[in-house]
Design goal:
alpha/beta, Dihydrofolate Reductase, subunit A, two-stranded antiparallel ribbon, 4 helices, 10 strands, 21% helix, 33% strand, binds NADPH dihydro-nicotinamide-adenine-dinucleotide phosphate
Length: 166
């Protein structure tokens, strides 16, 4: 099973503030939708709550230490990232996407095979950050530049990194 991580991060690694996203990037939302539709998406409880409900046409796997946390039927509550990945394996999935937030990314970098990173050309204030990663452990296999316009607040680059085999 391929484990993919997807994130939009600023130049200073900020990814959110007050449990919300901090930019309006319509083209990035389209990329997120294109890549994750039809797949299982793994997320922390706070990211799930910031969305309010499961995203359409995707199966949510929500990580929480609270066993009583309620999520709608057809979606899954698990206790740890390891359990989320085991669930994907037991369901014979080809691929899962880890979609955040900061707490989950921190642990996920060691598990994932590829990272789809929207590199936003901005340095906003925020309270959650994408972790630093060792660039030598990753190679860029795709990179596409997007320019700001009326629907996209900032320039950004969509970059796919694959793990370099040791
Ligand atoms: P997370 O979404 O990572 O959720 C944190 C929660 O996940 C914890 O409170 C806990 O839930 C559960 N959790 C974390 N680690 C474990 C573990 N080891 N075992 C069991 N449960 C665990 O929260 P963050 O605050 O880090 O991130 C949310 C922020 O990130 C928001 O601002 C959001 O908008 C932003 N974001 C940005 C993205 C981007 O691409 N720019 C993408 C996704 C989110 P509990 O407390 O219930 O036990």
């Amino acid at each position: 099973m391929k484990i993919s991580l997807i994130v939009a991060k600023a130049k200073n690694n900020v990814i959110g503030k007050d449990n919300q996203l901090i930019w309006r990037l319509s083209s990035d939302l389209k990329l997120f939708k294109k890549h994750t539709t039809g797949h299982h998406i793994i997320m922390g409880r706070k990211t799930y709550e910031s969305m309010g409900k499961p995203l359409p046409n995707r199966t949510s796997i929500v990580i929480s230490r609270n066993k009583d946390f309620k999520i709608p039927e057809g979606h899954h509550l698990v206790n740890s990232l390891e359990e989320a990945i085991q669930l994907g394996i037991s369901r014979n999935l080809d691929q899962v996407f880890i979609i955040g937030g900061a707490q989950i990314y921190k642990d996920a970098i060691q598990f994932c095979d590829e990272m789809l990173i929207t590199e936003v050309d901005a340095e906003p204030d925020g309270d959650v950050f994408f972790p630093e990663f060792d660039s030598k452990a990753w190679k860029i296999v795709q990179s596409e530049q997007f320019s700001k316009d009326e629907k996209n607040e900032y320039d950004f680059k969509f970059v796919i990194y694959k793990r370099v085999n040791p």
